[in-house]
Amino acid sequence: MKWLKRKQDEQPQLSLDQQRADKLAELGAQLWASRQEKGLSLEEMVAITRIPRRLLQAIEEGNLNDLPEPIYIQGLIRQFADALGFNGVEFSSQFPVVSEQKKLQPVGESPSISLLRPIHLYLLYILVIVCSVSGLSQLLNNAALRANDNENTPQVNQETVADSQQKLIKTEPVSDRITKEKNNQSVQIGVTLKASSWIRVIADGKTEFEGTLPEGTHRVWKAQEQLTVKTNNAGGVLMSVNQQAAKEMGELGEEEEIKIAAQPEL
């Protein structure tokens, strides 16, 4: 038994990034479910919280990569939760900002500045002055060398410079390429289980999920062309299309299959 306990203690714990991702997914699912129960759209939440829509959507989907630094994420979660009637401070405190394993160094082990004697301070000042003079001298020498190199460097042909500038003008900006990529067709569904149900999801002809999900589960799937959702308990599944209000797929205990095609963005 002692050996087993020692082996369990030696198992590596989840990394801080993984802890954040897991907790964000859990909190985002709760916020999504609460918003659906209140019948509020993301646009309405933007008006209430003054948080951009893309950040609210990233929180609900548990997408850590589309969010800012952890300390800001915690603040966004607090505002989101407050707007839905939660205790925002308590709710957002569940999101880890710093590692629980990280401990502050005991104050007694840190060198105390008050223990420095005047002679030590004088020596420190002298050292700083010497380093500053040395650095300034090196900087002046480098500047002189660069000036000499510039004088000895032949001037660039004006026609070559003009050709280079023309090529730069013809290059498509990166921001334009990103905008074109974002204008591609896409479709998204979110499902919340009111009761345990079997579900199969097909995205662009590929089966993304097939199996039984327990009550309270919230999942999101995306596709570029078409999403197909089939279940054996339509009344137990709430489905939201492209962040719209969630609706039941059908009657309890009935089998239902729904296909959603992507619409081009105008």
TrEMBL record:
InterPro entries: Bact_Cytoskel_RodZ, Lambda_DNA-bd_dom_sf, RodZ-like_C. GO terms for molecular function: DNA binding. Residues 191-246 form the Cytoskeleton protein RodZ-like C-terminal domain. This is Cytoskeleton protein RodZ-like C-terminal domain-containing protein.
